[in-house]
Amino acid sequence: MTQDIAARVSAEELGRFMREALRRCDVDETAAEAVARALLTASRMGTDSHGLRLLPHYIRALQGGRIQARPAMRFTRRLPATGYLDAGDGLGHPAGYQAIERAIEMAEETGMGAVAVGNSSHFGAAGCYALEAARRGYMGMAFCTADALVNLHDGTNAFHGTNPIAFAAPVAAGQPYLVDMATSSIPWNRVQQYRAIDRTLPSNVVVDDRGGLTTDPHTAASLLPLGGADFGFKGAALAGMVEVLSASLSGMLHGFRLLPMLGEDMHTPRGIGHFFLVMNPGAFVEREVYERAIAAYLEDLRAQPAVEGREVLAPGDREWRCQAQRDAEGIPLDSANVAAYRQLAEALDVEPLPLT
């Protein structure tokens, strides 16, 4: 997405700032690295709503006690290919990376591995964890519950969360195939971002408190499911699938009963549930067979004709291009981000970002 650019910063400096800010909140080195890694992954690929913009919120939640800085995470392997991770009300990012690591270990042994995570918190972009599996040669999937921000199809109020679905698959001669999508029309963080910079939203993605369509981020009360007003039954069904996998298998509350992420209560843990699935392609066919098949699929896909002035892209192509550009030019910050990071630097006594 395009944005109003007030400044740019290198990924290295942004990561340094994130780790230092988290350490000021008594977060240990491993967890701070996991958070910075996830947020940088998202922002380098252009998803700032789930990247750099989230750090101030995590700091408030840590300072308020909603998120435990040093939780006692406990993993239990229940069957050869399944496990449960209690995240101890800590940051969702180290929980997500540990869960996907455990699932990879089981997939290496048994062909597949699945881990349900309970007592967690917001974990950023789901694609970070699916991507970790693909980087290691496995197919990965990640799902997560979220508080109610999305109307049911033909419903009058929010019921599901944005409930992301992420899938990544390894590609031998290139970047992974990557799908990372909310089951809502857009993420709620996008509304917050547009509200902060006073920018008009696209049509048919949000409604006001009377259920009427609006493009004003200041009057947006809830999101429409993927498919909008006419075909939102598809997005609502996908969101329900995510609820079952993430909340029911982890024993956590579903989104309608969760405390709001952006509410006033920064003391009470929210109890978020995640679900991760990893598959070893070599457990189904010879590895070479898989690699030839996905390469042929992507070659055919990218060769398809496009409408005038456009280009056919595979899932992930846009993100890899954005990542290359931002690695070369720096990660852009809008005016609201610049102000938020300056306030954090002063409040936490962290060296400010060197902005250009």
Write up what this structure looks like.
The protein is of the alpha+beta class. It is built from 10 helices and 14 strands. Helix 1 (11-23) runs antiparallel to helix 2 (29-44).
Key features of this structure:
356 residues, alpha+beta, Hypothetical Oxidoreductase Yiak, Chain: A, domain 1, Ribosomal Protein S8, Chain: A, domain 1, 2 domains, seven-stranded mixed β-sheet, three-stranded antiparallel β-sheet, 14 strands, 39% helix, 17% strand, globular, oxidoreductase, Mal/L-sulf/L-lact_DH-like_ah, Mal/L-sulfo/L-lacto_DH-like_sf, Mal/L-sulf/L-lact_DH-like_NADP, Ldh family oxidoreductase
Name given to the CATH architecture of the largest domain: 2-Layer Sandwich
Helical run tally: 10
Task: Please describe the biggest sheet, giving its number of strands, its sense, and whether it closes into a barrel.
Answer: 7 strands, mixed
Number of domains: 2
CATH class of the largest domain: Alpha Beta
Q: What is the string of helix and strand elements?
A: EHHHEEHEHEEEEEHEEEHEHHEH
**Fraction in helix:** 25-40%
> Could you give the order of strands across the largest sheet?
2-3-4-13-5-8-9
> Strand tally, please?
14
* Beta-strand percentage range: 15-25%
Task: Look up the CATH topology of the largest domain.
Answer: Ribosomal Protein S8, Chain: A, domain 1
Question: What is the overall silhouette?
Answer: globular
Low-confidence parts lasting 5 or more residues at pLDDT below 50?
Answer: none
Radius of gyration over all CA atoms, rounded: 20 Å
Query: How would you name the CATH homologous superfamily of the largest domain?
Result: Malate/L-lactate/L-sulpholactate dehydrogenase, NADPH binding domain
Could you give the distance between the termini?
21 Å
Q: Name the average pLDDT.
A: 96
Structural class, by secondary structure, is alpha+beta
Family: Belongs to the LDH2/MDH2 oxidoreductase family.
Pfam family, one: Ldh_2
Keywords: Oxidoreductase
InterPro entries: Mal/L-sulf/L-lact_DH-like_ah, Mal/L-sulf/L-lact_DH-like_NADP, Mal/L-sulfo/L-lacto_DH-like_sf, Malate/L-lactate_DH-like
